[in-house]
Structures are given as C-alpha cells and as structure tokens.
C-alpha cells in the first residue's frame, strides 16, 4: 500500500499481523507521530453500550474514542510488548496522540502497548505476535529442541553403555568356559582300581 501522504513520516504497509504503520522518515524520541481520533462515545448513553470493536480507545470512565473510521490512520498501529511509541492521552481535551519513546528509523514499524485489558481480551487468547513475543517463542522452541536432543543423546549413551557391558560379560564367560575345557580332571592319569595308566600296580612301580 502506498504512503498516506508524502509529508507524513509514516505509511500503511504489510506487517506480520496484517496491516501496520511504518516510518518513512527518521522520527526522534519524544516526537508526536499521529493523532488517534474518531467519534466520541458517551458511556452514559445506552445506545453506545452495545458498541464493540477492536478500535475503541477509552479516555476515561465516560468518554471513549471509536477509532474504526477509515480516516483514523493511527488504527493501523499494532501492539508491541516492547514498543517504540506510546499513547499520550489527554482526557480533558478528549484527544490521544501517539508519541515516539525511541528514535525510529525509516522502515521500522511503529507500535505501542495497547494495555493489559486489551491484551487479555484480544491478544492473549491467540498469542501475541509482536517481535518481542516472537523472539521469546523462538527461544523456547530452540531450548525445547536442544532439550529433546540432549535427552536423545543421553538415552543413546545409556544404550551403548549397556551394550558394552553385556559384551564384556559375554567375553568373560567365553574365556572362563575355555579354561575349564583344557583343565584335566583329578585322577585322569590313573587307571581303575588304583592302577597307573600303563597297567602297572603302584606297589610294583
């Protein structure tokens, strides 16, 4: 998707979670990036109670911004557990601005923390896909693979040691049986009734 406006430091583009907002120019830490806006919903009015969408931004206990309108480009900014921007909420003015909390380079995706309530309601059930959480998942998968490999190698070593032990025991038994076979039994050189093998009596011998 092309840039929203050439004089703006951002554009809408494809991200891992669908669409996102990306910097087209360097954005310095503390700079105001964009305003999050839309119709104001009054919680005191019953007709607004049934409204439910992912772009509601609560200003205070009474006022909420419905940011689902197409003109609100800030709605494309995705959540991140380690963001490079934050929401600057001004309840009295009923306005919200997104500010950079880090230096953002061209090409970087702009993101901010949506907050605990949104995270629990929408992101936790499906798994957060921000860069920080992706790195955590990759690290856990790598650790799990390493642990499976370690256990596999341990089992293989155990099998080898057992096989070597059985082989040694078998070799020892064979050696013992061979020694017994070559040994002459007692009296083998004697004939019956006390005679020597040549047939002569002991006495006469």
Description:
This protein is of the alpha+beta class and 205 residues long. It folds into 2 domains: 10-126, Beta Complex (Beta-clip-like), CATH 2.170.270; 130-172. Helices cover 29% and strands 22% of the residues. It contains 2 helices and 10 strands, in the order E-E-E-E-E-E-E-E-E-E-H-H. It has helices at 116-123, 131-182; strands at 10-15, 18-23, 32-36, 40-42, 56-58, 63-66, 78-79, 85-90, 95-100, 109-112. The strands form 3 sheets. A 4-stranded mixed beta sheet has the order 1-2-10-7, with no helix packed on it. It is elongated, with a radius of gyration of 42 Å.
Total of domains: 2
Question: What's the CATH architecture name of the largest domain?
Answer: Beta Complex
Shape: elongated
CATH level-four homologous superfamily name of the largest domain? SET domain
Strand content is 15-25%
Largest sheet: 4 strands, mixed
Order of helices and strands: EEEEEEEEEEHH
Determine the fraction of residues in helical runs and give it as a percent range.
25-40%
Distance between the termini: 121 Å
* Overall mean pLDDT: 82
Fold-level CATH name of the largest domain: Beta-clip-like
Please count the beta strands (DSSP E, at least 2 residues each): 10
Total helix count? 2
Radius of gyration over all CA atoms, rounded: 42 Å
